Amino acid sequence: MDLKVDGGTDETTALLSSHETDVADDKPLKKHSVFGDFCLFPSSVKYLVWNEFCERFSFYGMKTILALFLLERVRLSETQATEIVHLFIVACYATPLLGALLSDCYIGKYSTILYLSLVYSVGNWVMAFAAVPSPDEVSVFPFWCTMLALGLIAFGTGGIKPCVSAFGGDQIEWSMPDGESKDRLRRKFFSLYYFAINAGSFISTILTPLLREDMSYATAFAVPAFLMMIAVVIFWVGRKSYVDRPPEGNVFPIVGRITADAFRLRNVRRRVYNDGAENESQTETKHWLDAAKLKHDEDVVEDVKTLLQVLLVLIPAPLFWALFDQQSSKWVFQACEMDGRVAWLGGLVIQPDQMQAMNPVLILLMIPLFDQVVYPILEKIGLSLKPLQRMLAGMLLCALAFLISGLLQIAIESHASTTSDFNVSTSLLLNVSATVDSGKQISILWQIPQYILITAGEVLFSITGLEFAYSQAPDSMKSVVQSFWLLTVAAGNLVTVVIVAMIEGKLTKANEFFFFAGGCTFAMLLLTWLGMSFKYKSSLAPLPVKEQGIEDA
């Protein structure tokens, strides 16, 4: 996009402009599934999808076994391990703002992704080195080497997060195949992008616990490190096919000046409105930022208004993530108290950290299910949901998942000395010499209902939020707004760390789950209130449910 400089001011007026040179074709999309449209995407998208698959394999493979590694090899307590896991997630989702600034303001998306991916890859190999055991099975550099590795990984993965999704969106915006609706194809891209994320997550979540159990932690961390190297190579190979928009300068000083001038000129602007308005109600409808139009280009001010409107409705989002990311901590520890043996599957033993694989496998099933079944049915009965409404439904399901996990925790504690019906039938298929450990008499499979609910909530909340943040952002701030969306994940995990530290020893494990469910319910009410005044950009009117993919206000 060419930059247009206003002769009456020294700032770039198109810096935040939402106007595009491309005009979407009005022809309707054919009735393809998300995956049937893969051939319609620019070739550059395919490199990004495979890159994302390998990168997410690397990240989730490492993250899946992290809690138990800290517990068993670094010798931390359960509470300390929980805090470090969530602080690591905080870092992963706080650093996207740095990556967004680099990409949108200085070196562009391609260079940011490439350089920070290399940092990411180094961090993975440091993690594998940190897990190399000594003869007494204690890591050679158990704590500080692990912290260094986690820091590099957090900076690398966090820095590229907003850039990859926005970079993929740019390929659709500026290389859209003729005859296709840009908005609808973009929504399909985000569903496919999210599918690739969870395909990589699913495979690694199954594989790395097996490597941990059968080989070593060092091997289990080395495999994700190798996949990250492959991700870098795939991304580099596609370099000639990418549309890489040049950075357009630092937008934050302009946003700051407009905000400050709006406050300073508000009284002057109010007098102008009062003189020109026909009645009092006409004056009251003016936005407080409109005062800045006395000094700044009108389009720039409108973009800042759009930016602040989007950020405002993201305020409740951290409460969703505060619950969601406990799958890798509290839910793993809950699984440790349960019986992982499944006799009717040939004596298969499910490891506690393997239960996390339920989330990505359910995502792989639910994305096409929602796209091809749930949304069309809702459309037929007149319940086509707008993005914020879908996100509200996702938060409700997340709260219900934690309600169920709390009830399950009560059952675990009450059955410490009583065999459940499931294990009675299981014990008949086991060798007669087998014994059931006290406190592990409820099958680990009873966690499945809570995983189903929280995954359905993720489909409704996270994928919708990802596309919502991109589509509603001003053109030159796509990565920045994506980073704020990801920042809600960091804030949510920080909330978890603070709350866990505050309530440790004061609530039972079951009541902790109920407490978080109540917090998510409060966030739902807040989002409902904020969403009532939200105005969508015209390109995102009520979404055609057949064309809209939907985790991640």
From TrEMBL:
Output one GO MF annotation.
transmembrane transporter activity
Q: Which InterPro entries match?
A: MFS_trans_sf, POT_fam, PTR2_symporter_CS
Question: Which Gene Ontology cellular-component terms appear in the entry?
Answer: membrane
Q: What superkingdom heads the lineage? A: Eukaryota
Q: Any keyword Lyase?
A: no
What's its membrane topology?
Multi-pass membrane protein
On whether tRNA-binding is a keyword of this UniProt record, the answer is: no
Annotated signal sequence is: none
Q: Which PROSITE patterns match?
A: PTR2_1 (PS01022), PTR2_2 (PS01023)
* Coiled-coil intervals, chain numbering: none
Question: What are the alphabetically sorted keywords of the record?
Answer: Membrane, Transmembrane, Transmembrane helix, Transport
State where the protein is found: Membrane
Which residue windows are transmembrane per the record? 84-102, 114-132, 192-211, 217-237, 306-324, 357-378, 390-412, 483-501, 513-532
Gene Ontology biological-process entries: oligopeptide transport
By sequence similarity, the record places it as follows: Belongs to the major facilitator superfamily. Proton-dependent oligopeptide transporter (POT/PTR) (TC 2.A.17) family.
Protein's name in the database:
Uncharacterized protein
Protein source organism:
Ceratopteris richardii (Triangle waterfern)
